[in-house]
Fold this protein.
Amino acid sequence: MLSFTYIAKLVIIYFGIPCFIAGIIGGLFNIMVFFSLHTFRHNSCAFYLTIMSIFNMAQMITGLLPRIMTTGLNIDWTQTSLFYCKFKVFSLQLTATMSSTCLSLATIDQYLATCTYPRWQRWCHIKIAHRLISLFTVFWFLEQIPTLIYSNHSISTVTMNVTCKITNQFFEKFNLYFHRIFLWYSLPILVNFLFGILAYRNIHQLVYRTVPLVRRELDKQLTIMVFVQVIWNFIVIIPSLIIGILILHGNPNKDPIIALEMQSAHAINSCLFYLYFAVRKNFLR
């Protein structure tokens, strides 16, 4: 148990810190590319990916950085500040939900853009993308307000230390089932995998259509970027889904050994999840 925890600490320090730095640089690089090229500035899918890059960087700051400080350096800011405790849970869930929403919108957008029906292609408009992002941002912000209310300090029955958690039992179950199991894991896997496959199939049919070469290459590039993101998310979300189900139904917090093993496994899997943020900039080149 101690060796597994020690390995997780080493992974966070020697892998998580470089991943965090490279992820922030990669996110800034993506934003610069999408805003600097005229072709991308007026493309709805590129707009979704740009907003996703912004929320991904915010997610690294609110998710990976505290993980580095807690697991790697034994510094937990949520224990000393109730405000940070509430802000961390709220911002992490908001950024994760918006990032997942942007990826789903980008996947659906590429499917519609590569369809043969012009009326479906008309939904891939930059003004519609602006409205959808504004609508989802406001909706998820309001939907996450209870997280600010019910996130509080609590004394752990396992370690007897101050922890930051949702103290309302009803909302805690709602948060686990709806936000984590459904919104973060199940729904994105289904939507992204389905529309990703359909968009990838449409791309292979573009060679048989009368489509301008620039438009064809742009659709291919954006579809490949989205499809790679979908595949990577599928790989890293499945372990998180399994860990979440085990925590939900097995209640490992009653056993301190299992609790530490679950936390260590979750820390290692978090690094794998944020790894894509660090290497994603290479696909744009």
User: Anything to note?
Assistant: The two ends are 43 Å apart (CA to CA). Strands lie at 151-155, 162-166.
